[in-house]
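Title: Prediction job returns without error message
Component: structure pipeline
Severity: low
Priority: P3
Assignee: unassigned

Description:
Job completed but the reporter wants confirmation the result is attached to the right record. Sequence as submitted:
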Amino acid sequence: MKIVAVSLAVAALVACSETDSHPDRPRSTVAFDGTDALLYVDVADEPDERSRGLMGVDSMPTDQGMAFVWDEPVGSTFWMKDTLIPLSIAFVGEDDRVIGVRDMQPCEADPCPSYGVDEPYLLAIEANLGWFDDHGIGAGDQAELRVSAYG
């Protein structure tokens, strides 16, 4: 009986340690070498998720964003159709280094402008406008996406 009680106590401690003090914050993150910057991200790795992106979102916490992930390098561009908040986007190549950062404004004209880089990339990271500049992140910096199995 003591073994069962100890097992239950350990299980309860593990469950509590996995509880985030910010339950609405995504658990996946992007870290940038050489900085203490950490961006909490929702991961869009399916075509419909990447298409939808942050459309319709009217506000986002300071250190939160979205990571768009592909299995193979792409050269597609992003646009701000139906996106309500200004964003910055960092494009990351196969070597895990930032290729470039672009600032994007909500689209108020038709057709909407598109934003991209001249090289293929595997990862694009959207954050609130100016987030990358505020954290000193630019071309050449290394980015590491840490995808959480818990959401």
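Comment from assignee: result matches the submitted record. The chain has a mean pLDDT of 86.
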